[in-house]
Structure prediction request, 587 residues.
Amino acid sequence: MKVLIFAEQRGGKVKKASLEALSAGRQLADATSGSVAAVILGLGIGGQAPGLAKFGADAVYVGDDAIFEKYSADVYGLGVGKAAQVFGADVLLFAASAMGKDLAPRVAARLDIGLLSDVTSFTMDGAIPVFTRPIYSGKAFSTVAPKAGKPFAVSLRPNVFPAVEKAGSGQVVPLEHGASASDVKAVVKEILTAEGGLLDVAEANVIVSGGRGMKGPENFKILEDLAKEVGGAVGASRAAVDSGWIGHSHQVGQTGKVVSPALYFAFGISGAIQHLAGMSSSKVIVAVNKDPEAPIFKVATYGIVGDLFEVVPLLTQAVKDLKAKG
Amino acid sequence: MNILVFVKHVPDTETRVKVAPDGLRLDLSEANWVMSPYDEYAVEEALKLKEKLGGEVTAITAGNEESVKTLRTALAMGADKAVLCADGAFEGGDAAGTARVLAAAARKIPFDLILAGKHGVGDDNQQVGSLAAQLLGIPAVTVVTGLEVNGQDLVCKREIEGGTEVVAATTPALITCQKGLNEPRYPSLKGIMAAKKKEVATWKAADLGLDPGSVGAAGAAFEVRKLELPPPRPAGKVLSGELPDQVKELVRLLREEAKAI
Prediction:
């Protein structure tokens, strides 16, 4: 199969989730004696091609043009669609990031091909790739196969597939995209960074979440301190968000973000079904709650029944000590 | 400003899902069905814009006869009209099939703006709005938490990782709505009574000029091999002893057993 990966860059840096997609693409191509190409769009991004070759790209279509300086799904869709046609892609892979989720359906509709969102694993059934994705925010998993003979697109959940270095031949091909200013209908004017450039729960390997047990917005500071020590992001349950203690972008669960980090801390979160759906595919779960009957303990790898206001500072200090020892 | 709102009838988020005996579908017979939560933000935003700028709000859904309940909710909140796109040919369809139906319906009604939820709870595709916009040849701005309308100009705020993008677009356009955009109103008793008298049109594939082969199971790009519940998590350890010792033990386990820190 010929697999094309959209390599998303922000500020000239390729996203880790795109390298994960590239590695998955390499695996898919190797299983089918195929080849892998990446397409990267932006301004002044020509130097990114060798980095993409290192993670498996045999060809890199580079759209280095002022028209791609600011993200616009209209012209990015044109560019990726063009690369898919030139390469003759059988499969298009996107990271299921904010940009990937916005762009992938625009490309799929442009090419009139199917799209699978937020895939978390795949296997081969002979020459046919079979994909699994969560539905109902992870309350169930759906395994599907593409109908024969037609190209298709897939977006892959970040943080699930490993990014593995495996050299591809990395031939650089300038992309003849044909996009012009009149194609731009909606465009990013400005990006407002969250206070302190905080890590987003959707991209974090470690998440430190608080719920109703946090009792108020001022107490999230102790979670931020712990998150800083473990290199994680601060998450929250719907109860904490709806109480106005923390912004919705931190919400984990069925009406927030569905996450699969390596390590998830749940402090003062009882574990409503909507929250469990959003985080129970985390590799390791630590729950701290005063109520020994809280449903969160049913999914926890390690549990402490106790007061989070005692546990969190002790834990932050213990992690600090551990790091000091090296 | 004439606004179309795409809505979807879904099992509520309390639903405990079960797999049907054939292993290919979910048994949702015990679910409580509601308007998809993100669609409530779309209906609310449409009503706020109508109150400010005038025009008509039309709620549209692609579904079955049951989906009319979600249209009634939109009407009770204050939408003027509703369209139910329902046909046996739509069954078993994917996001692309739904988008083809909704785009075909949108072509029959003059509009300035289309609003939709950022995704339909359940299938979790987050595709239909963007697919429909592409089919209609209009821009889409997705996952929007702030919207300003000045004549034909739209300024949208959308959530991205660790920040917010400010996106400019002009009507006609499609916007998908995220929590934080507004506080959806509850239907009033008066609204619920009025909704019963409002018109709900029903359109079939032929009314929409759709080839039955392009929608429903026939038009789907993928086939379901199986549906399953997530594997149960292995039983965890609840620690015991004095709290400071528990924390020490937790850190040791995270480092040595789980290798997570």
